Amino acid sequence: MPISVTPYIPQTITVHTGPADQWAENVTVSFPDYIKNVASSEIYPTWPEAALRANILAQISFALNRIYTEYYPSRGYDFDITASTMNDQKFIKGRSTFENVDRLVDELFTTYIRREGFVEPLAAKFCNGTTVTCDGLSQWGSEALARQGLGTMDILRRYYGDNIELVSNTPIRDIEYSYPGYPLQRGSSGSYVTVLQAMLNRISRNYPAIPRIYPADGIFGSRTEESVKAFQRIFNLTPDGIVGQGTWYKLVALHGAVRKLSELVSEGQPFTQIQGPAPGVTLREGSTGVAVSALQYFISIIGQFSPAVPVLAIDGIFGPQTAQAVNAVQSRLGLPVTGVVDQATWQGIYDEYLGIARTALAGASLPTSAQEIERSVLSGQFPGYDLSYGSTDT
Can you list the domains of the chain with their CATH numbers? Predict the structure, then answer.
């Protein structure tokens, strides 16, 4: 898939041994060895095990978030993370590591933290909590909490909130950068072009001078070229209409920015984006929660391919704009235009999404079968009951 939906553990990670904007050596090491180095550089092996586990999980999650969001490649760098504690985590090339830290990392390196209902690893910031404080885990604070008897998850929730969970047994594979490895230009076609068009359409909501592309059909024609050139002009790139690595990663960076992908609490990709409908759920103006987020996502995917259907902000609130979008989808599907999502409307919206996932986005690895969805959905299930004004997630 051009832009990964499901996080994975990289076989290796490339570390820039200095600040990103300064020359320094790039070192490529296995991901477990990287975490062992970071943990041995950041914390003390004599701390209680609950504190060690909490810190190691934060370090794993932070590194995976950097990889998942292509934080540095999207900014034109040829590495995945730096060794600068100003922005990332401490890494010392060639240092020895501690036996108990190594044991814990070998146990934990395929586990990461995420917010409930979200896919991407949490960008779990941390600092020592004495000379430096931050909006994240306090290393010395975690040590004190462990000595008070708090467990690993209690410590993590103290700093990152109650709505976090752990994902275990994450698959391991080589890093797959989103750039296809060759320029996209007029005449190109395929799933990479579809993703390009979807990114441009999403960015154009914040930058209206960029023409939207309809249909987003995976064919790089004149409309796509015009949109690419407009994007390049706005962001001071050579306006040649060719999507090379520089343009691609600028798109990736801007796409993350307009989705409000932040360092600690990001909009991310909710699990509701890959779920199917549940019987008995009725949504209408005033409804809120996970099911509404799913509805907004499915409609927004449809909106990338149908100019009559608006693309929505995925905020979990069924307001007037969502109601108008539902009306537009119902009209498109030949259903009664009520603005209320009953089972027939829900099924129609979901079937339309699946059609797009299986055709225009076939190369994007979106789950389409019931089995794939079941494997992908680990939390954030639809509630199975009517939602009305005042409803909240529980």
Answer: 9-173 (no CATH), 191-258 (1.10.101), 271-376 (1.10.101.10)
